[in-house]
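User: Here's a chain of 306 residues. Predict its fold as C-alpha cells.
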Amino acid sequence: MVGLCGCREGKPAPAGAVGLAAEGGPAATAAAPGAVVVAWATWPMPNSTPGLPNPQSFDTQSASVVIDQVTGLMWQRNLGDKFVTFADAVQQCQELTLAGYDDWRLPSRVELVSILDVTRTQPSINATAFPQTPNDWFWTSSVAADNPQAAWYVYFYFGYPKTDDVTNQFSVRCVRTATPRPALATRYDIQTDTVRDIGTGLTWERAVPAQTFAFDAARRYCSQLTLGGQTGWRAPSLVELLTLIDERAAVGPMIDTAAFPNTPSEAFWSSSYFGNSPGMAWQVYFDHGNGLYGLPNATFRVRCVI
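Assistant: Prediction complete.
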C-alpha cells in the first residue's frame, strides 16, 4: 500500500463560479477586486520539526491575532463557526476589520501551508498559537491552473493541500502582511547543478537522481551528497517541498521546468513523518501538487535541499 489519507475528492466543476488568477508574477497576483495574493514565498518557510532551519515562532500577545515572526504575516486567531464557498471566503476576508486593520485577505496556498504543524494531527497546527482550530478544510486564494472553477485548500485534520470545487463550503482564516518584504524581480538563481530560491533562501538539487528510494534511503542519499562544492544536504521538510509547486502549471510536472528540467511528474519524499510518528511519512506529488502520506518502505523520488 503506497499512500493513505482522508483525501477529499473533487467534484465536477459547475459553470459560472468565481475564480482568480493563478500564480503569475514576481510578488503578487490579483485575486478578486480589492484582493492581492502573494504568488510564492518571499520569506523563509517556517518549520515545525525541531532541528530544521527557520523554526516556527509566533507572537501570541494579542487575543485576536497571531504574528508569524518568520514570515511577517499576521493571522486571524479566532474563527467563525461557519463553512462558506470560495467566493464568500474571499469577500469575508476583504470585509474583515480586526485589531485595527482592514487590509485582510484570503491567504494563498503557500501562505496557509506556512502555518502547518507537521508534527501533529487533528489539527495540524500549533494549538497554543491557534487555539480551537477545527479539523477542517480551509480555503486559500490560489486557483487551480487546470480548472478555473476549483481552488486550493489546506486540510488541517492531517495537514495537506489539494484542490476542490469553488462551490464547496470550507472554513476561512484570514491573513494580512504585517511586515512587507521587497518584491523580487526573479525567483530562482539557476546554476549548473543547483537552484537557489531567492525568496525562501533554500538551495535545491537541480537534477534529481534516476532511481527511487525508500524513506530512510532518500534521507541517507541527501546526507551523503556533495553538489556545487557544498555538503550538508538533506531531504526537505513537507512544507519546504511544497514551496516548489508551481501553481501556474495546468499539467505535470507542477514545477518551474526552466529551473528544474526533466523533473518527473511523480511523488517526491519529504523528511517529515506523519504526525511525528515513524510509521508513516509525507511525500509531495508533482503531477497534481498535493501532499500525501504513506508507508516509509514505499519508493519515491527525492530532491535534496540545503
